[in-house]
Structure formats: structure tokens, C-alpha cells
Design goal:
This protein has about 250 residues and is an alpha/beta fold. It is built from 7 helices and 7 strands. It starts with 8 loop residues before the first strand and ends in a 7-residue tail after the last strand.
Length: about 250
């Protein structure tokens, strides 16, 4: 068992399915105490039951990452339940793909609220605690769309993911030597993210995701970053299907 994962308290947002749930299962199997947070408590409870049945430690927390007070309350709850928090995985995200000419400002607002502000609210909740304990690890889920603009259709989504990558890098420079920051930047990964698109672009997105790699691929990348010695900071990991050119 990897001693730098074992006994760590890890909070994963968007932990009810996909790569959030896979990350929870994998880290728990390596001895982490895992807190999974999302809006769908029934699915969260299923993930927790699976982890506990396999001998791991997990707890579910209802969370809407767009609610700053809820994010703070969940982080405080994790500290109360597990004694501390060591790792935050900012995983919750939305990806509605649509040409900008359709001017769906509701979707733009949702992506900014979840993909950017949700990440910032998570950072805001854990950072004072990490600074106080002089240790901690913030892992933000960006995307290959945060490296190259996914257009047409994914322009605003790319904007949010470029923001996550920039926030991750700036945070890394600011927090000093005792706190680690990692940006995980996947390509097409099998998850519910692809179902966030409606309207004209639906078929294009589903076709794109036919080449997707399993969510556990991202979970392994996260575990790799968490498992490094404290003085090693994995700043960014880019992974995509071998068949994906973008």
C-alpha cells in the first residue's frame, strides 16, 4: 500500500459517478479515507456502500458546488468526521457543447458557476486549513480543452477549462512549498459529462466520445499525483485516448 495515500482524508466533488466515483474507489482501496460529495445522494450512497463492502472508509455529503456556504459546510463536516482534510479533488463539472451563435447564456452561466466558481469555492474552503496545517493537496480537473480551444461548439467550455488551468498554475506559485497543486487534463473519458449536451451538437459529441478511455484511467493519474512524496508536486497530467488527435 502506498503510504502517501494511506490514511489521507480526501474530498472528491462530483463523486457520485464517472471519474469522481472511480477515483474514490481507487484511493479508498489504497487506504485513503474518502469523502464523496455531489447533489445525487442516492448515487453517493451507492459509491460509499461499494467502498465499505470492499473494506474501505467513505462517507457521503450532499453538495451543490455553486453554493459557497455549502462547500464550506461540507469541508467543515469532513474535518469533523475524519479529523482533518488532506486532499481536495475539484471534479464537479459541466460540458454542454453548443455553437456560440445559439447564444444560450443559461448554459454559459451554468458552466461558469460550476466549472470555475465551484473550483474557486473549493479552494476557498480548504486553503486556509491547508495553510494552517502546512500541508495539503488541491487537484483540479481541467481538460485538453483547457490546452487547445474546442471549437466549434466548445468555446465557452474551453474558456472555463483554460481558467481552471490558469488558476491551478497561479495557485501553485502562490501557496509555497508545503502545499501541492495538480491540474488533471483529460481528453475523452467515459463519464456522464457527454450527456450534458442537448440540441444540434448532441450527435457530434456522442460520436466524439465513442473513443473514450475508461474513467479509471483518470483515477490512476490522480492516485499517481497523490502518492508522490510530499516534496514532489505533479503540476499537470495530460491524458487522452491514443486515437484522439485533439
Amino acid at each position: 500500500m502506498n503510504n502517501n495515500i494511506e490514511n489521507k482524508s480526501v474530498l472528491i466533488t462530483g463523486g457520485s459517478s464517472g471519474l469522481g466515483a472511480e477515483t474514490a474507489r481507487l484511493l479508498a482501496s489504497k487506504g485513503a479515507k474518502v469523502a464523496v460529495a455531489a447533489r445525487r445522494t442516492d448515487k453517493l450512497n451507492s459509491v460509499v456502500s461499494e467502498i465499505e463492502a470492499a473494506g474501505g472508509t467513505a462517507k457521503a455529503y450532499a453538495l451543490d458546488v455553486t453554493d459557497k456556504a455549502q462547500v464550506e459546510a461540507v469541508v467543515a463536516g469532513v474535518v469533523a468526521d475524519f479529523g482533518r482534510i488532506d486532499v481536495l479533488v475539484n471534479n464537479a463539472g459541466l460540458m454542454p457543447i453548443r455553437p456560440m451563435s445559439e447564444v444560450n447564456t443559461d448554459e454559459w452561466d451554468q458552466m461558469i458557476d460550476v466549472n470555475v466558481k465551484g473550483v474557486l469555492y473549493g479552494i476557498a474552503a480548504v486553503l486556509p486549513r491547508f495553510l494552517d496545517q502546512q500541508s495539503g493537496h488541491i487537484i483540479n480537473l481541467s481538460s485538453v480543452a483547457g490546452i487547445k480551444v474546442f471549437a466549434p461548439g466548445g468555446t465557452v467550455y474551453s474558456g472555463t477549462k483554460f481558467a481552471v488551468s490558469a488558476i491551478s498554475e497561479g495557485l501553485r506559485q502562490e501557496v509555497g512549498e508545503h502545499i501541492r497543486v495538480t491540474s488533471i487534463e483529460p481528453g475523452a473519458v467515459e463519464s456522464e459529462l457527454k450527456f450534458g449536451t442537448s440540441g444540434t451538437a448532441t450527435e457530434t459529441v456522442l460520436d466524439f466520445y465513442e473513443r473514450a478511455i475508461p474513467a479509471v484511467s483518470v483515477a490512476r493519474a490522480i492516485a499517481f499525483a497523490v502518492g508522490q512524496p510530499d516534496e514532489v508536486d505533479i503540476n499537470a497530467i495530460v491524458l487522452r485516448p491514443t486515437s484522439q488527435q485533439f
